Amino acid sequence: MKAKNKKHVICGERCKSCGLCVEACPKNTLAIGQTLNGQGYNIVEQIRPEDCVLCGLCRIVCPDVAIGVVESD
Amino acid sequence: MKAKNKKHVICGERCKSCGLCVEACPKNTLAIGQTLNGQGYNIVEQIRPEDCVLCGLCRIVCPDVAIGVVESD
Amino acid sequence: MRTNCTFSGSGGQGSALLAKLICQGAMKQGLQVVMTQTYGIEQRGGDSTGYVVVSDSRIGNPLVENDADVSVALSPTIYEGCLDGSAVGGLVLANSSLITETREREGVKQVLIPASDIAVELGSVKCANIVMLGAVLEATKVLEFATVEEVLRDLMGAKKPALLEMNLKALEKGRALYLSAAE
Amino acid sequence: MRTNCTFSGSGGQGSALLAKLICQGAMKQGLQVVMTQTYGIEQRGGDSTGYVVVSDSRIGNPLVENDADVSVALSPTIYEGCLDGSAVGGLVLANSSLITETREREGVKQVLIPASDIAVELGSVKCANIVMLGAVLEATKVLEFATVEEVLRDLMGAKKPALLEMNLKALEKGRALYLSAAE
Amino acid sequence: MVVRRNVIRYSLAVDEKKRSNLKTIASESYMKSETLFLKNAQTFAEAMVRCGVRYHFAYPITPATEVMKHTSVILPQYGGRMVQMESELAVANALAGCACTGTLGATSTSGPGMSLMQETISYMAGGELPCIMLDAMRVGPGDGDIVGAQSNYFQATRGGGHGDYRVIVLAPASGQEIVDIMPEAVKLAYTYRTPVLFVIDGVTCTMTESANFPEPHDYASEFDTSSWAFTGTGDHPKRYLLTGSYTHSQGEELNNHLLAKYERIKEEEQRWEEIQVDDADVVLVAFGIHGRMGQDLVSNMRADGKKVGLIRPISLWPFPDKAFEKLPESVKSMLVVEMNHGQMLDDVRLAVNGRLPVHFLGKTGGDMPLCTLAEMTAKINTLL
Amino acid sequence: MVVRRNVIRYSLAVDEKKRSNLKTIASESYMKSETLFLKNAQTFAEAMVRCGVRYHFAYPITPATEVMKHTSVILPQYGGRMVQMESELAVANALAGCACTGTLGATSTSGPGMSLMQETISYMAGGELPCIMLDAMRVGPGDGDIVGAQSNYFQATRGGGHGDYRVIVLAPASGQEIVDIMPEAVKLAYTYRTPVLFVIDGVTCTMTESANFPEPHDYASEFDTSSWAFTGTGDHPKRYLLTGSYTHSQGEELNNHLLAKYERIKEEEQRWEEIQVDDADVVLVAFGIHGRMGQDLVSNMRADGKKVGLIRPISLWPFPDKAFEKLPESVKSMLVVEMNHGQMLDDVRLAVNGRLPVHFLGKTGGDMPLCTLAEMTAKINTLL
Amino acid sequence: MQELAKIYGETLLLDKKFSYCPGCGHGIVTRLVAEAIEAFGIRKRTVSVVGIGCGGFSHHYMEIDAIEAMHGRAPAVAVGYKIAKPENIVYTYQGDGDCSAIGLAELLHTANRGIPVTCFMINNNLFGMTGGQMSPATLEGQVTSTTPKGRDVHQHGYPLRVPEMMADMRGAKYVAREAVYDAKSIRKAASSVRKALDCQMKGLGFSFVEFIVPCPTGLRLSVSDSYKWNKEKMVEYFKPQVFKNEMEQNDEN
Amino acid sequence: MQELAKIYGETLLLDKKFSYCPGCGHGIVTRLVAEAIEAFGIRKRTVSVVGIGCGGFSHHYMEIDAIEAMHGRAPAVAVGYKIAKPENIVYTYQGDGDCSAIGLAELLHTANRGIPVTCFMINNNLFGMTGGQMSPATLEGQVTSTTPKGRDVHQHGYPLRVPEMMADMRGAKYVAREAVYDAKSIRKAASSVRKALDCQMKGLGFSFVEFIVPCPTGLRLSVSDSYKWNKEKMVEYFKPQVFKNEMEQNDEN
Ligand SMILES: Cc1ncc(C[n+]2csc(CCOP(=O)(O)OP(=O)(O)O)c2C)c(N)n1
Ligand SMILES: Cc1ncc(C[n+]2csc(CCOP(=O)(O)OP(=O)(O)O)c2C)c(N)n1
Ligand code: SF4
Ligand code: SF4
Ligand code: SF4
Ligand code: SF4
Ligand code: SF4
Ligand code: SF4
Ligand SMILES: [Mg+2]
Ligand SMILES: [Mg+2]
Fold it and tell me: For residue D33, what pLDDT is reported?
């Protein structure tokens, strides 16, 4: 059940592959992916976006302000 | 009632006239005298030596180690 | 005879180890050797370069000041620096698995070695640096192959025979690659 | 014209006040004046000396360096110092109430003033310094009497008329004593 | 003449109903230009406050304590404050914080305190933070003796802290000169964005003499600091005082920038007093109290027909090299006199660069911790 | 050759049954004279420990931290200890406390830490306390940049602290020289009862090279400190280290005593390396890494027929004035090269005293924080 | 990035990537501070005084003025700043080494002085920036690059608890210890950040928050393990709690 | 003098007069320390590390070796000394300014480190030697030469209580505050001096005693009034008490 006006975003450039969001996600929708960013880190990705409940826990635990739930416009 | 083998002594040279022993003496036997010592202070004296009970309180409060009760030999 | 070497890569590519292996080999052969490193403000990651001067006499100037006789470039980010830091007459060995765009510099010889690819083939991308080491030795003769093999044996022989095996192969492969590429 | 003065005594004798009164008088008369003081390691008591230089022109050297024109010795402990610190041709005014042993020094005039005794007579041993001040003024003419009287008046006039009275008497007495003693 | 005292109001921009730990009360009062008879340490305090310094950070130490005792009384009258900190380290860093707002603060200390401040002075020089400092010099090394000395000359002029930096060092020799030079000091601090350090020996500091104070004038607030002060991004884009997060090239740039500034100061800000050098046989070089005694020395010896001149450096850094550039032919030698074992001596020798012999007379500590006029005269007589 | 490692047992002379917070375990082990390939900061650590230093007080700071990392491993093997203190201030004072027992301690730090230690270094110089210090110089001012520099020359050689004092300053230019000079340093520290300060630029400190270590030898315990150490009145009448309770004359006496000692050191302890100065046209003067590069520079330029010589000061204080006393007629000028903006330059100019022009080339900070051989060569070519 | 910026507003500069290592706790605290500044709308009058350590970079990621203080001295700098410019909001951002080793005297005197400034101490229980040496907060037995055999409490003492020392100081009005090992603890930490700044904005007195965070690099642990270690070991000794919250006692003297 | 020497033995040098002002509390504490050293028979292996302040003279009156440390740093000197020579007994003798203003970090870190040294802090609540300036211990409203209108706690904070800050430190084994305003309090103080030294002699850990004493000169009070003021005002805020006495817990870690 997702809030209509919200969406999940990942800022790949900022991600450092630390995996904290992966651990924190209650729905196990996240995983470290294969794509490297400019800093040389594998970017986290939503492997099951449809399961994401937009709870925002990933945002809270991310030490690099690289992920979160925003208003969709 | 004095202990036989004890006596009260004042080291005039060390006294600085602070008066703390005078205030502390339970028998009011002490007073600041007229004699000046080499440091320019009026030396404390026993004005009623006979009343002294050799309790040693004067020694304890003296900040200049100038007074006390010692073994008499 | 003095040889100025530069080993560059980004974090985890083992350029510092490469430098250290050369140092240890040089010591085994009774040569003089000095290693310097660039360091940034941070403890963390980033590119790094190890400079090694090997000589048979006292090393006065311990620096490699844009006069490297041989430079190893493991990653694209430091490729330009390696090229600019080479002496005229020097040699740049570039890891062509990652460094895809190269340019010419007058008086500088460049040899492309697909080190990372070879390393993967050999079992781990981590031994790309050793592939490069083989090429360096073949190109410069700065040290005997036997010496470096001994150093590798000292380092991992007893505890990690499989690792040693892979690295010895990498070394040999690097030499062969240089020989064929440099033709 | 420059006059070098030294005022010495032990704690509580008011030698510093003496120095300050001279300074204030000098300022009133538009003269230049500098005061320096010796200070020990401790906050507490002990001898003290105030040095005052009075001059009608800019004071370069602010120090009295064993060249006092007039020295006041209030207590025995500093008497020797006063004598040694006097200029040849200088004057030492010694408080003979306390300084009982004196010695001669060639070229230095000494005048004995029983300042503490006179002060006690006048009402308080504390005004011994002012007795000395009277003598200094008479001996050196460094300042007008009227000026110093004014300074004293400024200092204690309004609040302590009795004190002022005593001090003015002490000043006058010092002057008279000097005149008779110096004959 | 009666003028209105410069009053700076000081208050907290917070909800007025809430209690504030910071509020100080600015009282209005009036004051005139006047002659005061004060200890020179007090004169220093008066002078800086009358030139617009409103925050004095300090920690007690003889013979500098007089300054803070004085400012603790007068600063509140000007709406300012004397802030006693827990140590000289804290003092220096609070002073830096004050400077970051674009506000000129001051401190006063002596040898051990100066040494404790070296790291932060290096920081303030690097961060280009203006401030006024006083080193009321006493005898070192170690805790030392509280009588006056001039043995912190090296520390003051060469940066006792780490790195290639300098601070402007001024050495007034009398109460009057302290008063006269203070507006200059404020100007130098702001113009070059640098600490300005007064070094005055303890004998001079504790000496009482009169000084004419002109009307108070808030020089400090005449300088526009809005181009650099770290006052919040309300009126400028983000700014920061860089020290720990350098890149290598920023470190190099900063050093080059400082070097250029120092060269400019060396060119433009040398200050000294010169007396009868023109035809002198011997020139005395001395700062502070010895320089002042030199004024008498020259007139006394000239009265005896002896051709003696005086160069009295007032700025110790930049050292007045220019005073030594065109010494007349007549000069046969120089004598440097200091209350130390030969520190300014190096600068004089560097300025003279071997052209003339440079002699030295010095002393540190003792009941008479300086060279007397007689000793100086005797020494010069051996050189004539 | 295998020799027994010097083991110093360390224990508390208290009731053995009680727990002790102080006990450290001395392990016995063996070691030989050997060649080690180490960062020079580690070489410094090894060298001092092998010469008998058993207590190393330190606080982390790049690029000096390597020293404490190394001693924290090796000192316990010698029965000693690396003591990490809460700050450089505490470090310096603990070092002083250690020295008071007659025991040689050491510390290692860099610019900001050095500045924080200035008060205590002044104190140790005044109190005549021996110790070994390392300033692994980085770029200042302020917190600065961690790349190497030589910009603490003034601070080191002129006493960044207050008062008329000096410390012996040594500037080895390679790992081997660190090893070779360490026994000397221990000897100097004890003989003159003074801090001995090594100044080594960060580039040299972080450089890895091999050094031959001779057999360990506890030089430190060869010196009899019983005539002065504050070890308790068991074997001597009351002694105290004077600093705060001076009389004026004691302050003067101490300063005169120090002055005499410093004159003796200046006379006897100048150290430098000199290469082909005899017939040189231009002499390069440089210490540390630039001095070492100068060795190559001379041979390269000589090979080109250019008459260049080198003076490499090894003791920075006392500065090797003697090296400049009898420069041959052939020398037309000198070039000073430093990783700063001209500090040793002053000493060279003072030594040369105007007899020759002294040129300068310097740099502080940057990705390559020093002058390259090419730059030095180019500059000398303009002087030939 | 632009999308995320919607949440964070103007304070956080999302185009500057954090220079911290992957998983570093500084990243979380830096964000919390920026969020609070944004929430209070005080960005334009807020100044960060950062200590020397990995957190010294924290200000680079915010559009606020900043002063990089010398190691340990940030609180003294903040005091001088606040006295000269009381209308601004000043906070220090210091590591445990900066704050509780070299800078202990300045911190405690600033706390005791009670003038309204805020100190944030980011306690990763070692010296991160210089390569993982022991700090006052290093746990008993913990191996660091200067305690190769682990912290020996008989030599180095027990880990130092800092806010506990402020208990008796009346000028300190808000004092707390927080952790960041999971979303819940982070939310609590966020609240303390806001309270500490609010305490200053109201001019009540000194405020202090300690954050227990992991330094995976210095600990030589994986990111995940370093957070586990925080949750299990660190907070056992350094118990998160609000030591003082005297924000309502305005009439109290 | 010779007669009094019988009581005091060899430690106290009675031929040297105390340089303290009349009535100064340092005189009492100096004597207590000398008595304890004499009583324990440790004179020959005891070293006094004195701070800068009036108490810096204390060692002149005892036949023991002494080190005059730089202002505030005595505890660090003591640590260095003790590490190099653990068989000796080392105590610091510091004023409140020395110990709790400039030297706070060294004191607290020494306490926390827990190695067996002893610190005595003689708290006369001002800077005596430099002429009576405010110290951290100056009471609210108290006039000193740097607080001409009295200590304003909103500017300077409340008086700092030091042993309270050691409560949480396990390395500190004996921590007490004593007073000397009458014979009874002096006797208690004497006992704390002995316990503190005993704690060190037994190698148990750090020990600390604060003494509340008057400085009649700095307070500008008569000797008698200064003692009264101590008894009435000072000990109300600085309550004498034994904060810690863990001298029997030898097996505790
Ligand atoms: C005076 C001084 N001493 C030492 C240093 C070196 N130094 C830089 S950061 C640091 C400690 C960092 O530890 P911490 O404060 O805990 O911050 P972290 O990096 O762990 O966040 C030290 C000792 C310095 N810059 N200045
Ligand atoms: C670094 C430094 N700063 C300041 C001083 C000046 N100073 C000497 S004693 C003292 C304070 C004395 O106060 P306290 O420690 O309370 O001792 P007391 O005299 O009151 O017994 C100060 C500030 C100094 N000697 N060194
Ligand atoms: S918003 Fe919640 S459910 Fe969605 S990815 Fe983040 S943590 Fe998982
Ligand atoms: S928590 Fe942030 S940095 Fe870490 S993996 Fe997730 S998005 Fe990337
Ligand atoms: S011994 Fe007791 S009774 Fe005798 S004088 Fe002393 S206090 Fe008084
Ligand atoms: S207490 Fe001591 S110093 Fe004071 S008056 Fe009595 S004997 Fe004299
Ligand atoms: S070293 Fe530690 S504290 Fe520093 S950025 Fe990396 S993880 Fe964070
Ligand atoms: S000034 Fe105070 S502390 Fe110092 S000796 Fe005098 S009374 Fe004692
Ligand atoms: Mg940390
Ligand atoms: Mg005190």
Answer: 95
Touch criterion met for F and C (3+ Cβ pairs within 8 Å): yes
- Closest by CA to H155, choosing from G252, G250, G79, E64, is G79
Beta strands in E258-379 (DSSP E): 272-275, 282-285, 308-313, 315-317, 333-338, 358-362
Asked whether residue E20 carries a pLDDT value surpassing 90, the answer given is no
Distances (CA, A) of E88 to A51, D99, E377, F124, G114: 60, 46, 40, 20, 19
Q: Residue E367's pLDDT is what? A: 87
Residues having CB within 6 Å of any atom of ligand 6: B 15-21, 44, 62, 64, 66-67
Q: What is the CATH number of the domain that holds E97?
A: 3.40.50.970
Specify the pLDDT at position E2: 30
Rg of chain G over Cα atoms, rounded to whole angstroms, equals 17
Backbone φ, ψ for residue C156 (5° rounding): -125, -5
Of G1, G12, G223, the CB nearest to A18: G223
* Residue H113: strand, helix, or coil: helix
H or E stretch covering F157 = helix F153-158
Where do the structural domains in chain H lie, given as residue ranges? 2-245
Domain-embedded: residue F115: yes
Atom 8 of ligand 8: nearest residue by CA position: H24
Instruction: Identify the nearest ligand to the CA of A18 by its number.
Output: 4
Q: Are residues E315 and E197 in the same domain?
A: no
**C75 to chain A: which residues are within 8 Å by CB?**
none
Q: Does the beta carbon of D45 lie under 8 angstroms from any beta carbon of chain H?
A: yes
Which pLDDT does position C39 carry in this prediction?
A: 61
The pTM assigned to this predicted structure is 0.95
User: DSSP label at G69?
Assistant: -
CATH topology of domain A5-72: Alpha-Beta Plaits (3.30.70)
User: What are E188-201's pLDDT values in tens digits?
Assistant: 999 999 999 999 99
Query: What is the structure's pLDDT at B1?
Result: 53
Mutate to test the interface with E, among D7, D34, D59, D84 (most CBs of E within 10 A): D34
Neighbours of chain E (3+ CB pairs under 8 A): C, D, F, G, H
pLDDT tens, F315-356?
999 999 999 998 999 999 999 999 999 999 999 999 999 999
Reply yes or no on whether the pLDDT at E368 is more than 70. yes
Q: Count the helices and strands in chain A (H runs, E runs).
A: 2, 4
Ligand nearest to the CA of B25: 5
Q: Is residue E210 a contact partner of residue E34, using CB atoms and an 8 Å limit?
A: no
Q: What range does the domain containing F361 cover?
A: 273-383
Q: What percent of chain G has pLDDT over 90?
A: 96
What is the homologous superfamily of the domain D2-182 according to CATH? Pyruvate-ferredoxin oxidoreductase, PFOR, domain III (3.40.920.10)
Q: For chain E, what is the domain count? A: 2
Per-residue confidence band for A1, with pLDDT thresholds at 50, 70 and 90: low
Q: Ligand 9 mean position to F202 CA, how many Å?
A: 24
| Reported confidence tier of residue F31, pLDDT bands at 50, 70, 90 | low
| E254 & E329 share domain | no
Q: Please tell us whether the domain made up of H2-245 is placed in CATH 3.40.50.1000.
A: no
Read off the pLDDT of each residue in D36-47 and give the average, rounded to a whole number: 64
Same domain, F262 and F279: no
Residue D44 DSSP one-character state:
S
Q: How far apart are CA G96 and CA G125, in angstroms?
A: 6
Q: Which phi and psi (to 5°) does residue H197 adopt? A: -70, -40
Taking only the tens place, the pLDDT of each residue in G201-230 is 999 999 999 999 999 999 999 999 999 999
Q: What are the distances in angstroms from CA D164 to CA D159, E169, E258, F333, G75?
A: 9, 47, 62, 77, 54
CA-closest residue to ligand 5 atom 8: B25
Average pLDDT, chain D: 91
Q: Is the CB of B17 under 6 A from ligand 5?
A: no
Decide if F189 is inside a domain: yes
